[in-house]
Structure formats: structure tokens, C-alpha cells
Design a protein that fits this description.
- The structure holds 2 protein chains of 2 kinds.
- In chain A, the strands form 4 sheets. A 5-stranded antiparallel beta sheet of chain A has the order 4-5-10-6-7. In chain A, strands 11-12-13-14 form a 4-stranded antiparallel beta sheet, sandwiched between helices.
- Chain A has helices at residues 14-24, 37-42, 78-83, 85-90, 92-98, 104-109, 112-118, 124-131, 150-153, 228-234, 241-254, 266-284; strands spanning 7-10, 28-31, 50-53, 63-66, 69-73, 135-140, 144-149, 154-156, 159-160, 167-174, 180-188, 195-206, 209-218, 225-226.
- The longest helix of chain A is centred in the C-terminal third of the chain and has 19 residues, at 266-284.
- In chain A, a hairpin with a 6-residue loop joins strand 13 (209-218) and strand 14 (225-226).
- By secondary structure, chain A is α+β, with helices and mostly antiparallel strands.
- Chain B contains 19 helices and 30 strands.
- In chain B, helix 14 (515-527) links the parallel strand 22 (502-506) and strand 23 (534-538).
- Chain B folds into 3 domains: 9-34 and 489-636, Aldehyde oxidase/xanthine dehydrogenase, molybdopterin binding domain (Aldehyde Oxidoreductase, domain 4), CATH 3.30.365; 37-145 and 206-259 and 263-296, Alpha-Beta Complex (Aldehyde Oxidoreductase, domain 3); 299-476 and 640-789, 2-Layer Sandwich (Aldehyde Oxidoreductase, domain 4), CATH 3.30.365.10.
- By secondary structure, chain B is α+β, with helices and mostly antiparallel strands.
- Classes of the chains: A alpha+beta, B alpha+beta.
Chain lengths: 290, 793
Amino acid sequence: MKAAPFDFVRATALSDVFAAFERHGDDARIVAGGQSLMPMMNMRLAAPRVLVDINHIAELNGVSETDGTLRIGALTRHQELGVNALVAEHAPLLTMASTHIAHPAIRNRGTFGGSLSHADPAAELPACAIASDAVINAVSSSRGERSIKAVDFFLGTFHTALEPDEILVSVDIPIIGAAERVAFDELARRQGDYALVGLAAKGTIEGKTFKDLRLVFFSVADRPILATETIATLEGKDYSPDTVTVAEAALEVDLQDIDSDLHTSAATKTHLARVLVGRVLAELAGEGRQ
Amino acid sequence: MTEKSPLTVLDRPNSFIGKSVSRAGAKRLLEGRGTFVDDMTLPRMVHVAFCRSPFAHAKFGAINSEAAKAASGIISVVTGRELAEYCTPWVGVLTHLQGLKSAPQHAIALDKACWQGEAVVAVIAETRSQAEDAVELVEIDYQELPVVADMETALDDATPVIHSDLGDNLCFQREVDIGEVDKAFADAHCVVEETFNFGRHTGVCLETRAIIADYNPSEEHLTVYLSAQAPHMMKNLYAKHFGLNEDKVRVVCKDVGGSFGIKVHTYPDEMATGALSIMLKRPVKFNADRLESFVTDIHARDHRVKARMAVSKEGKFLAIDMDDLTGIGPYSVYPRTSGIEANQVINLTGGPYTIENYRANARVVFTNKNGMCQYRAVGHPIACAVGEGLVDAAARAMDMDPVELRRRNLIPDDAYPYTYATGLVYEQLSHHQCLDKLLEMMDYDGLRREQAEYRDKGIHRGIGFASMIEVTNPSPAFYGVGGAFISSQEGCTMRLDHTGGITCTVGVTEQGQGSDAVMAQVAATAVGVPMENIRIVSGDTDVVPYGGGTWASRAAGIGGEAALRAGKALRENLLEIAAIILQADAAALDIQDGAVVDADGGTERMPLSELGRIVYFRGDTLPKDVQPELVVTRHYVPKAFPFAFTNGVEAFYVEVDVDTGFVKLLKCWVVDDCGTIINPMLVDEQIRGGVVQGIGGALYEECLYDERGQYLNATMADYLTPMAMEMPDIEVGHVETPTKDSELGAKGVGEAGTTGAPAAIMNAINDAIQPFGKHVSDMPFTPERILKALGKV
């Protein structure tokens, strides 16, 4: 378990990153928290020739709120997501999700931008980004900055819409509205494990009525799944046991391509997704856990 | 409980027996000053990494290592045939396991790999990184062979035979048939039947296996620094297979970061490292990484047991009838063999109970998976889960309280010595006392009321029990009689230094479990000195008395008794000299707190440092005919019984989420009887650690293979071990029934927690889901398995 030989570049500005991309092309990989890439390198599942360390690029840090949008810098650690007051006020889904991400030692190093660009389908934050209607900001030296909607960002396991010469610099999240609620739940074998199934949810709740729901499942396919059929079914409906039953049925369509994993079959995952949707809808509706 | 005779050495003034004294090495380890094998660097040392077979079963022909040899830092690239000149093959059999057979196994495969992960080529380089880089450059021409992945079909005619010379894939079979089993089942009021599956798992040591072999050709001498449990056993095997004079082999075990039975076997890659050192005439280091550990550290517990039990109308257990099948990989592991686990299963099942009719069949078959062998509580968790699972099945079938059913069948505390149906002899056990104490600790009646209240609210909690017995302090009956050079004795050499300090060398080895601390407590008590005056040296075959090392819960019971005997003998010698110096009667003197005192009243007469000064530097002042002997050695080997059986009982309280199949462990209670308790804190933590490893087997740990024999979960993210958040509070209580076979009276405690936890958790889960009329018996109890049992998926 020793990584293949590699070179190391410490970037202190984005220009350093672009220079490395220019010089090394696909052989260069960005490393931030290193919580996924380093183990993969040690197991020789990844063997980049050059690691570009972005931890010292100051402009990638920080959380700020402007005109109804929360901007979170790519280097924001999971631990910071969990304790940051602006995040708690404006994007509470991230606060909720952060404690489910692995263990404190990993949360202290792992970054928001790293989790999104790594695109592990079992990770919590990509699902939260989609549920939150986030916009991902990326920069390249030749084309400048562009914004990609989170729902269009995740293309497959470890595969995103980022071009090889682009770096994810920040994430914009519309701040939560007064009538909006969020909920997050996942079923993991052990505290901190990747979930068998997880669900990040946001929506407007008027009385008991669901509007504009966003239900995003993770750890079920090669990317987070926005459950559009279930969402459409629930639009304008009041929370009730019958509504939950209808939602569970609609899930069959959204999760028809659900994947099994080492320990859990697709059938069990589908069952667990049904259980989760019931629990999360109850929480959104303020009914609490059954 | 047996009365202790009132005046043993244990009752001496200032006795440290029964006190939680702190461990001398704890601060050193905490400060990162330990010396593990990987901390060591020797001059001219090189590193080896292995090309390992990516296939479970494959022949290989041409090996092209040109590119690897040309890579940076490479010293040599060595094939199995080249290395065979330096290391003879071995066969993992013992003569007392009749009919057990296996094939010759080489340090590096010659032309056929029999499991995914078997070493095929060794690459030696200046650094481990360079060796790994070059491993990727070696080209090996593999031809895949049909794979024996399923133990259920391993003996079928259509299944290929892994070692054609053996004729079939049967490693070992043993049948026992005691009493009148068929009649007992015919007469039974109730018969319960169950098939139990146990997931293959492994002991995950914090410190992975590690070795430095240092061959010095000028002396034809080999020194091996090893992370291991049994240095003398390995010394013998190195000499035997490397063709060396055993007197010229030294094995040194410094700090060891956990072993659990994993580090008591002969590993091909470690043997290869030793042979490479001889070949290259320089020190060679190998340290298994986590990936290698998962595919080469021994696995255990891959058993399928079909069992049934006959019960009378009064709830008396009449008979057990069982069939055990286990797949152990392609070779019986050397030298302890892979037959012991199944042998234990059919010896121990139902062992806490008065069952007179007993039939069992065990078959051990070869498969193309990593080898299985002895891991903590060998066979015990399986035997316990089968027996206790049948007990609870009977309780359900007869609508009886599981505690009441146990009470009616546990061997009475006054019935000892007792011989179980399978021939096991118990000196003195305390099942009923332990059960009574456990019920009190857990407030059983209150817990049942609470369970009922929760059940009314739709919350499904369950209570599960496991009574257990454990094999500890093994005599030569375990291995010695089978022809293996695995010692059952232990020794201790004690020396009074001129400072008054005492240096003890002991044969048992420190694995992180605290055996050095226990030896020090016994030594300090036996001689009569403060703890800080004792220094323990262990793990070096050039220094310590010949002994078996640490396994089968033998360190405290056997090693401790040797230390006790040595301490008493040294005290006697010291008093004899003190009496001459003080012109007193030796019988009127004692040694307390590091000084010679008047036995009556305790007035200090002379510190031991003064005695040491006189003996070592002013021998001229002693009478001409007196030659003090301030070094003594004593040994001990258990003889009265083949094993010192211990006993105990565990209970778990769990909550099952019947929607998700998730199990939450709410609380665990254990009452154990390990005889004399030397260090209560170490004993309790042995039990707790054991329980946690049992939790792993019950809920999380499983080595997963696909039908091609490919190992699927070789990372700590995919192989789930219980961690802090998965551990419930574990409350530990004790009953003390010392063995009379030794003066110390200590029995082992390493197996207890692991033995009972899987059974108790299974029974608790089944108690929780009983309202649904369902139960589970396939470990680990994953959410999926529980949901399937409940009919939800």
C-alpha cells in the first residue's frame, strides 16, 4: 500500500493550478483534503503523476451571503459546514448532513469542493447540493468562470461535468425560504459508514401540504437520484399515511435502476428507500419520527 | 465456590494478586516509544513485496521479470523455484487428528496458485515503495483453473480436486456418537432443528504482520524479529525448513500490536522473508499492508451447522445431533492445522448442560480461498451459538422462559468433577452461581417488564442469553501429543540484582494484552517486593525459558504459575542467605516490600539491596561453604486435566428496527469465572474486548468472496468491524473458582467474551422478533438478513 511515485506541486493561487494543468494535462490531479484520493493512490487504484495541492489558495476558503445566495468556498471543511452559523441559518440541510459524513478526523480534512468533484455516489454532499438547488462554480484559464446546476453536475461514479482543465471554486446555494423545510436521513451499518440508502430533502410545507419538494436519494445508483416521479406525485398533497403509501409506490419508478452493493441487494435497498421516504416526509411535515 | 486454603502465597502481606495495578509498559506505548517490527531498521536492510495471484486457482508458466529487475532500487526478483532451494515445504497435519491430510505448501508457489493472494514472485528492493513499483512490472503467464468456492459442493464428484495427489477435497472428518441418540429423539416430547451459518471472518490486528529476518553467514546464524505469539515454535520451524541448526536461530518478539490468534501460524510470506535473508545474506523486512492482511492473514469461522435437539416434557435436554461443514482454504495451516476449529465445535456444543446422548459429524474441506485456522476462541462462538440457539428454539417451542429452561439443564454446581458426553472433563464450574449473579446485575424481571411496555408501543426489544464454557490452560493434549513442537509448559527465571531489583524472564509473550504486567504482579507478590522493583523480559528465545508463548488463554494460568514457583524459590534462597548474614533462623524471617523482615511483627532487618551488595561484592564475608544462588528458574505444565475449563454467562439487550432490519445493542452483561483474578482491570478489559470481537462476528464482520473465489471487501471501509459507537456498555461480574491444579489457581479469560456474544446477540434478536413468529440463524445478522427473515424483502 504505497502510492506509485508522483510529483507534488503546492499551489498558492489559481494560476499555479492552471500552470500545472497546462504542463501536465491529464497527469495532474487536484488534492484538497485527500480523504478519498490518498487512499485510492495508496491502493494504486489511482496513480496521478502530479498532485496539485490547493490547500493554500486563500480565495477558495470562506462562507458568505449575498442577495439571497450563500456562497461556500471549495476548501470549506465538512467540520466547518457543521458549525458555521451562516450555513446553519441559510442552508441547514448541509448542517444536518455534515455529522453523517464519516468521522471527525475525516471531517476535519475533507472539503465540500472535494466531495462534489470526487462524485462518490454514496456521499452525502452531492445529494444535498441537488436537493438545495445548488449551483457549482468552476474556473478554467482559457474559458474563465462558468456555473453548472448541481442536478446537471453529477454524471456517474467519480464522473462530473467538470472539464479536465477546470477547478471547482465555490458553490452557490439559494438561502432557505421562510416556508421551506429540510430533512436528512440515512441508514448506515455503523456510525460514519457510507449509507445503504440516504435521502436529502427540501420543500415548501404549507400546513400539511407539500409543494416544490426536492427528494434526492444517494447510495442507490451511480449518482444521486432526484426522485422526480415521487416529487410530482406529492405536489400539492397533504401529509397522511395514504400520501406516504402513494409516494412509496411512485418510488418504484424513480429507483427502477437501483444498484445492489457488497452487503445489500437492490430489493433491500428499495425497501429501505421506502422506509426512508416515509420517515423523511413525516419529518418535513413536522410529524416527527414514528 | 471452592474454599481457598487460608495460607497460600496469594494471601501474603502486600499481595498484588487481585489488584488493578497499572502496566509498566503503558506509558512507553502511550508516548509512542514502543518498538514494533516496522519501527526497526537494520544496516543493509532491504524490503520485500510480493506479486500475488489475482486468481483463486491458476497455473502459471513463464515469469518475465526483466523490466522489474531493471527498475530503480531493485536488489533481486525471486521465484518460488529459486526460493525452494532455501526453504523446504511443509504439511499442516497433527497425528492426533486422525486422517487429517494436506498438501505440501511452499513459501512461494512453484507453478500453481491456490487462492487469490498467494505469493507467486518476491521482489526485493531498497525500499518497500520501490518493491511495489517493480511488482507491477513482473509479467506472469497465468492459466486459470476451475475454482472450488463453495464448501457445500467441494466433495461432489463434479467438483475439481485442488490437490490431485490427495484424491479428494476432504481435509479431515470426525464423527462422534455417544449414548442412544436415535432412541432419545424417538422418545422426545419436543425436537427443535436449525441450520446455522457463520460468516468467514478474521482478526484485524492494529499492527499488521511484520518480520525482519537477519541472516549472518559468518556464523550461519539467523535472527528473526517478528510480530508474533509463539517465538519458540517459530524458532523450531525456521531451523527445520531453512536447514539451520536450531541453536543458531533466535526469534525476538518486541512490542506486538494485537494478535488474537492471527500471529501464531506459519505464513508463507514470512517464511519467504526468512529464506530470502539467507539467500541474499542481508536483513530483509516484510510488513503486510492491510490489503495483504485481508487476503493472507488466517480467516476463521466459515461453518454451516445443521443441528437438532431432543427435549423431554419436563424440559430436560435429551440429545444433540449435529452436522458441521467448514471450508478451510487450499491447505491445512501449519503447524496447528485447520482441523482444530471443527474439532472444537463438535467437542464443545451443549457443553454447559447435562446432555448424555450426543452425535456429531464434522467435515473439513479444501476450497480455493484464503486459509482458515485458529482465531480467538477457536470454535467456541460456533459451538456456543449452536447450543444456545437450540436452547432458545426449545424455549420458544415449549413456551418456556429461556432462563428457566437453562436452570433445568445446566450442570449443577455440586456435580463436579463432571465429564461431558464428548469426554471433556470439567474440574469445577459455576454455571448456576454465574447465572444468578447475571440475573441480579441485569434486573431480569424488570427488563422483561420494560420489554413488554416497549412492545406495546411497537418497539421491539429482545433479551438473549448464552451460557458458555471455554478451553484454557491447555496441557500437551492440545498439540504436543500430535507431534508438533508447540510447548505447553512455561518457565520463569528470576534474578535478584544487587540493587534489590528483580529481573524476570518469562516464556509467555506480551501482545498488548498485559501479560507482562500480570507476570510482574505474581513475581512481586511471590518474592515480596514492590511492583517497581520487578522488570519483565519476554519474547526473546535467546534469553527466556522455553515456553509456548501466548495462545489459548494460557499466559496467566500457566506462565503465572511458573512465575509464582520461581518467586517462591527465589524468596527461599534469599531468606537462607539473609539468615546467615543476620545470624537468624530463616523460618523466622520474611521478605516484605523489598526488605528482609521479622516474620513476626514485620520489623525490617535488611533491605534486599544490602543482601545483594554483600552477595555480589563482599562474598568474602560469607562462610566458606555457602554459595548463594540468587538466580532461579521454575517451570510449570498442567497435568491434572487436559484443559482448565472456565465458564460464564452473557446476556444482551437489543432493539430491532423491524422496518429497516437494523439492530441496536443497548446493553451487555457478562459474568465469568476464570478462577483467581490476578488483575481485575485487565480481566474485565479482556472480556470487553472479547465481547466486541464477538459483536463483529454477530453483526458486522464477513470476508466476502464471489463464485470465482475473488475476495470482495479487502478494505476497512468494506470489511466492517465494530467501533466505539457500536459498542454498548458491557457490565462485567465475576465468580472465582480457582483451579486446584496450580497454586495460583488462575484460569484463562481471553476467550470468554468472544465465545458468548454471537449466541447472546442472536438469541436477543430472535426474542425481539418473536411476535412475528420469525427468527434468524445466519451470521452476521445484516439488515438484509433480518428483513428477509421478517418477510419484508
